[in-house]
Amino acid sequence: MRKLILGLAVTLDGYIEGPNGEYDWCFTDQDYGLNEFFTGIDAMFIGRKSYEIAQQYAENNNGETIPGMPGMIEYVFSNTLKTVKEGAVLISGDVITEARELKKQPGKDIWLYGGAELSEALMKEDLVDELWLSVHPILLGSGKALFGKQNNRTKLKLLHSKTYETGLVSLRYSINKE
């Protein structure tokens, strides 16, 4: 079965975006392991809000959502969108069942790119297998937290860590599902 990897940038105080939805604090001066990560995935799960932000960004950057990102299937999870861009797949209704079924399909791993609500729902259902966090050396003080309230403790096992000269620390954990 394919792994679902929640991979995103987070501040040291645990925020994935600032109080006004900003992410201008994210380092973009190098790839921070993204190119290597891209070799192991062929699909992306993305929530509606993150999808809309990514599409706005792409409009201003020659259609490129993330620098260096290869082509992959984008599964957009939304109960309000009616259409998505060509090549993307809209998932609505019972998103948990759909996510389970997609994980069973053959292929490389799946990147859970974003959407705090989507990430929280998939975490609560034990569908996330790994966390890949790019911890940025900044304290925002407020914003959208990476994790909301969880039902249970989640034990993690460190798979890899790397510290960059900029102070960014890349951490990759597997989630113990005992």
Structure characterization notes:
The chain is an alpha/beta fold and 178 residues long. The chain has a single domain (4-175), classed as Dihydrofolate Reductase, subunit A (3-Layer(aba) Sandwich), CATH 3.40.430. The chain is 20% helix and 32% strand. It is built from 4 helices and 10 strands; from the N terminus they run ββαβαββαβαββββ. It has helices at residues 34-38, 48-59, 95-104, 116-124, and strands at 4-11, 15-17, 41-47, 73-77, 88-91, 109-114, 130-136, 144-145, 156-163, 169-175. The chain has an 8-stranded mixed beta sheet. Strand 9 and strand 10 (169-175) form a beta hairpin. The longest helix has 12 residues, at 48-59. The chain starts with a strand and ends with a strand.
- By CATH, the superfamily comes out as Dihydrofolate Reductase, subunit A
Helix-strand topology string: EEHEHEEHEHEEEE
What is the makeup of the main sheet? Answer: 8 strands, mixed
Rg for CA atoms:
16 Å
- Quickly name the level 1 CATH class: Alpha Beta
Query: What is the percent of helical residues?
Result: 10-25%
